[in-house]
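Run log, item B.
One chain of 549 residues. Sequence copied directly from the ordering sheet:
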Amino acid sequence: MSALDTEVLIVGGGPVGLALAVELGMRGISAVLLERSDRHAQQPRAKTTNVRSMEHMRRWGIAERLRDQAPFGRAYGTDVVFATRLFGHELACFDNAFFGQIPGRKDDRFAEGAQWIPQYKVEGVLRDRAAEFSSVTLRLGTQLDAITQDAGGVTAQAHDVTSGRALTIRAAYAIGADGARSRVREAIGARMEGSHAYAQHLNMVIRAPGLRDAVRHKPAIMYWLVNPESPAVCSPMDDGDRWAFGCVLKPGEAVPDHDALRARMNLAFGRDIEAEIIVTDPWSAHSLIADRYQEGRIILAGDACHLHPPFGGYGMNLGLGDAVDLGWKLAATLQGWGGPALLASYEAERRPVHHRVVNEAVANHALLPSDMARPMLEDAGPAGEAVRAELGTLILAGKEREFRTLGVVLGSGYPGSPIVVPDGSAAPVEHPTDYIPSAHPGYRAPHLWLADGSSLFDHFGAGFSLLVTAPGVSAEAFTRAAAAASVPLTLVTPADTRLAALYEAPLALIRPDQHVAWRGQDATQAAAILDHARGTAATRPRILEGARA
């Protein structure tokens, strides 16, 4: 038996666990990650790394590295096409769905556009980045057997799946990022609540030489195929003409054999295709959230505490947000400048976001290709054209919230967080598609591209940042208070006249996760504001009159 001592034990080596390892590694926190498999699966899983996740990739220094791994290149668009069949009539198209990166174009609302890339490639980039930190140890092929805790820390028992060699890990904290069947969740007695397995689906990975070149529709990241015989969704997935193909299974239906699956694909495509089925991956649609996320020093993240249908591209991205929220709070706690309220705020902040996203995904799942088919849809002549035009209009209205997700991706905040200082103003109305930047405390800091071509976010530090939006405003009270409390603070003074109106205050305290902790014009309570934002204050600072400009 061997033993390891670390500050944080991460159970699960998928994107959430790896993102947490990177977040901790960048902050010099020692972490051991356990993953029972080698994580080289070929299942499609997530394929959209959204705008907010790409901003995290930028902060982690790997946004360009990840884009380089995109199988169809940086210039490949993120359009979504609805058609009767892959070789049939087009019905509708969402141009630049999910707000993909457009070469040569910058949007002030975000620092990075979304990227279409298979999850296994995202994991590879994150894994390589995590391995670069001397404080991070990756133990692939190691399975957790048991985990317990006491007042001083967590003890885990594990073993190498190849050699059987036993391993004991002692850590200050443990994070369960071990997915839907989480052993860590089971160990703390948390239960998933909601709707279990209310729909059955099948995903496949196929190899179909020449298919991309043969498709008559415009290049797209997804083709929704709407017809009565074989409704489906298919996506170009990787080089070598590898595609993902997804369809609904009837209640109680077993996974068909390969011949039957090929017949189903050919019906969906509208042409016989020579396709090799590489992987079949049946899955169930759930809408579940854990009844609690934490027990003492053990905390859940990602699919271990929330599950929902993958419609809207939220799943992996939601888990990455968990890792970011947890990462800086764990580091601050372990480094001594974070107080007891910091880790306790994780569930208070993330749970409302999880509920919001689960509800969005369920709403998106309610309108599938099988729900859209109608008589005469494929008829030639004016009658068929009229039916297709009518359905196309309905699709653009009914699926907008699935493909124009900026209101959820960037507009989900923590207005009621116990570590956010309110300013007396009303929180912005959260909308599924519309995103209006807001510096209301608790929300993601509004972004701008600055005159020198840099992103405002590039100037924020690894700890707190104090953004000065107007000339002549003194930040001395904050810098003095931060130094006295050993709180890392970066002073950001871009001298951009647009910032004062965007933030509606001359000063804004930005958290390490780029959310606004406080905004105002009176810095006399700087010490109390910092104490509250780092979880050491017993009560909130009073709301200042005229906090905003």
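Observations after the first pass:
- The mean pLDDT is 95.
- The radius of gyration is 24 Å.
Flagged for discussion on Thursday.
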